[in-house]
Every structure is written in structure tokens, then in C-alpha cells.
Amino acid sequence: MTRRALLIALGLAAGGALLGLPAQAATKTTQGLIIHDAPRPVPEIDIRDGDGKPAGLDGLKGRAVLLNLWASWCMPCVAELPALDRLKPVAAAKDIEVVALSLDRGGKVTAVNTFARLGIKALDIRTDEARAAAEKLGVSVLPVSLLLDRQGREVARYVGAADWEGAVAARLLEAVAAGRPLTRDMEPPQVRPTTAP
Question: pLDDT tens for residues 39-56?
């Protein structure tokens, strides 16, 4: 996907506000929980930690993973981060890893500044320095959360900002961690930010 195509798609996901497109264009994007018929392999992506060292998904095999892709200019993404920050230690106790991957062009500096502004403490800095993750993962809108099983395969994804702290999300994450089939009644409700965080 070219940078222009990604920006257009991201603009549509943000209600077209980014590119001045009509709001009805945003309704063409499928949002919510998408459960795959069969687990999908996840391509290798170059994830870096706060020190610029490799921190890819290979090191997380054996654990279920909620991989959230976000950017600082995406209001729903930023609104979702505090809930993901609170979820991380709760999920870790159940052997589920929460990874928030910044797709910002500013890399570490932008992620650090956003985390500081929001008071994010539990989430680790993870960046896509190569700016290739969105294309490799087939992501055209933000935020998106990929749900990976213990073998590192994508079993589902959630498009949009979800209520990750509710009981429904807990059931979903526990099912992913246990390798149980996912069902539609495990779909967490969408969260729509009303103000900028």
C-alpha cells in the first residue's frame, strides 16, 4: 500500500476529517470484531523498543497477544491508549501480552511524548521505524487491534476503538489465550471519543 493510499484510508476511518472528505465515506469501513475462519500467519515486522533495539513478536510466542496499532494524530487511537495501559498488567496475569505499536513517522519521540501526556505507565514503547507494519499486516484504518494466539497467528482483529476493560473483552481475550473458538457474542463494544484526551 502506498503512503497516499494509507493516508486516504486513514482519513476515511477518521470520518474523512483528515482529508476533508464527507463523513458518509467513513461508513464504508468495516468496524468491530472480525473473526477469521482459520488462524493466519503474521508476517515478520520490524518492531523497535524505546532504545531502538528489536522487540518483534517472535519473543512473545507461547503467549496470547493483543497487538494494537495506533498513531498520535488518530483521536480514537489516543483515547483507547489509557484503557490498554490499565489492561496490560491485568492481561499479563492471565499470560496475555498487550503491545501498543506506534505507526507515527516521528517514531520514539512521538510515542514518548504521547505516553507522557496521557500518563501511560504500563505500556512499553514500541515503534514501527521502517513504517511497513500497516502494509504487511493489511491495516488500512486506525486503530486496529490484532488478536494473536500462542503460536503467533492472527485469529481475529478489532477495527476501531474497543472497550478493552469490560467483561466482554475479558471473555474474548481469555478465549484467545485458551485457544477456544471465538464467537460474535465476544465482541467488545466500540468506544467513540467525545473529546480529545
Answer: 999 999 999 999 999 999
